[in-house]
Amino acid sequence: MRLKIAVLAGDGIGPEVTREAVNILKAVAELGSHDFTFHEGLIGGIAITTHGSPLPTATLDMALESDAVLLGAVGDNKFNALPPDKRPEAGLLQIRQALGGYANLRPSIAYKPLAGSSPLRPEVTEGTDMLFVRELLGGLYFGAPRWWNRETGESINTMRYTKAEVTRVARVAFELARGRRKKVTSVDKANVLEVSQLWRDTVTEVGKEYPDVTLEHQLVDSMAMHIMNTPRNFDVVLTENLFGDILSDEAGVITGSLGMLPSATIGGAVNLYEPVHGSAPDIAGQGKANPLGAILTAAMVLRHSANLEADATAVEQAVRKVLDAGYRTADIARGSSQVVSTQEMGKLVHQALVEDIDRRQSMHAV
Ligand code: IPM
Ligand code: MN
């Protein structure tokens, strides 16, 4: 298996968590004799500082020539006064658009050993296994017109969707539901927004192609509540861009920390992989960041870009094993847990993974 991976570590904790994710991918490549190559590029605040643009042409060209893009995080407080199109985040939005992936998959799983790490009671979170399918290229993030007129004190953003855009992301949700518990919950605000009425209508129509999958609709405000009350009721959760951004952070509470959540964006020319968390400048460079979101993102690279399902599962199992053994980064630590650094956590997962793959290979050898 050959895979050319663009590594865009970005800002804040991006580089330290991405390093651990790359180590895991290198281990899988070595153990399975795969030819993975890694090509580093700049994005976000660091790219503004060194190249004057949050997405330099060299980075974009390299990303477009890769088989997968692994991104750390973007964002730096030093650019807070700049307008949206000049900020580090603009680089992320530009690369998402250029790569063309419209379906952002964000799994949210309540790992048993982390039951005590969530402020929610274990009996509420237990058994939660949701998959957000967040539309990533439409809605308020990209709709025009958009402006802020400082003189008149007026500003506008546009929530726009076409039927075609809703249809394609809905299909991804239904297809993925088929391989899971066969339920799609579509989130909208159809009691207020025309865009949501189009959304609901279109999803219902697509749902007819999938009679084996149950479809329900939820308004986004009550969905925000249901996710906290009965998270295990949900399987695939389909949302437009901004609703998915908000609800997936909320879902981080179930897992215990936003630092646990991975994501993959599929459907475009090149898949884009990024942990859900941000650049966390307050803890950057201190070895405090949780690399598990990035490592689980690496597992998604193996699953969705390399077709190495067994290895993807092995990485996820290695993460479970390390959590079972009681190791925690600071964000998920409680009481008697053993607190380890970003790098130590990466090493522990690496060790567990190597042991598991070795065992599988020796089983095949006899
Ligand atoms: C995310 C982030 C981004 C988003 C920001 C950094 C542009 O919050 O991936 O969830 O809003 O999509
Ligand atoms: Mn977000």
Helix content: 40-55%
CATH superfamily of the largest domain: Isopropylmalate Dehydrogenase
- Rg, nearest Å: 20 Å
Q: Give the class from helix and strand content and strand pairing.
A: alpha/beta
CATH topology of the largest domain: Isopropylmalate Dehydrogenase
**Count of helix runs:** 12
Q: What overall geometry do the principal axes of the alpha carbons give? A: globular
At the first level of CATH, the class of the largest domain is Alpha Beta
**Would you tell me the overall average pLDDT?**
97
Bound molecules: 3-isopropylmalic acid, manganese (II) ion
Number of strands: 14
Could you name the ranges where pLDDT drops below 50 across 5 or more consecutive residues? none
Number of self-contained structural domains:
2
Instruction: Please list the strands of the largest sheet in the order they lie side by side.
Output: 2-1-3-12-11-4-5-10-8-9
CATH architecture annotation of the largest domain: 3-Layer(aba) Sandwich
Q: In sequence order, what are the helices and strands, one letter per element?
A: EHEHHEHEHEEEHEHEHEHEEHHEEH
Strand proportion = 15-25%
Report how far apart the termini are.
Answer: 24 Å
Can you summarize the main beta sheet? Answer: 10 strands, mixed
